[in-house]
User: Fold this.
Amino acid sequence: MRKVVLAVRFGLLIQTYRNPFIGVLSLLESEDEYRTRTFVLSVRIENAVQTMRLFPLFLKLNGRRCLIVGGGKISEGKIAGLLSTGAKIRVVSPEVTPAIAMWHQNRRVQWVKREFQKTDLAGAYLVIAATTSADVHRVIYREARRRGVLCNIVDVPELCDFYYGSVVRRGDLQIAISTSGASPSLAKRLRRKFEVEFGDEYGHWLRTLAEGRRKVRERDLSALEKMRLLEQSASESAFLEYQRKSKGKKRRS
Assistant:
């Protein structure tokens, strides 16, 4: 904000952001106008930044090409998270970790042993890059935007269309946590907290809920009655009852 104010005070015409919702600053000629508009401008800029929220969603990647540029440990971690999605994973890097090489041998990923080329983005749904070259990252981002490919340059927020949240997985249950980059440490702490609160039993219970949901939907009931039964089956009391029965079965076995 200080840089913006200084620019205005010295009578410069500048564009504060590329975001069209913010626009450009006007050329201010008088000191009174400077004082008045500086306050209004500060409020507008801060309000605009606050409204730029991330949109949470879960992507279906089955059969879609996901490009990974870079073959180090960071890329290995990103690939590990993609393996169960059914995505067609292509890795472009002169060298890769032993784990990535093993996935390639097992035909779980395709490894192209060379440096990145712009044509690698052809047909890709998304690209994740983690290399040692900032220049390569900028080329990837610009080309991905041109082709309409979702892009994530690891640890470079300004070159990202999406971010990875901290995720708790219990079977089909996924709890994603994001602080919009404000505090990754808080996101990690919350993930550890939820990992304790939501144990493996939630994944097992979810399978039971899915089967029960199928049966309820097949019944000749009104929409409201079906909704009531489904909400009741997913209630806290229903979960406690599920835990009680599960513990009883374990003791008998």
Summary: The chain has a mean pLDDT of 83. The CA atoms of residues 152 and 163 lie 7 Å apart. DSSP finds nine helices and seven strands in the chain. Residues 166-197 form a domain with the Double Stranded RNA Binding Domain fold (CATH 3.30.160).
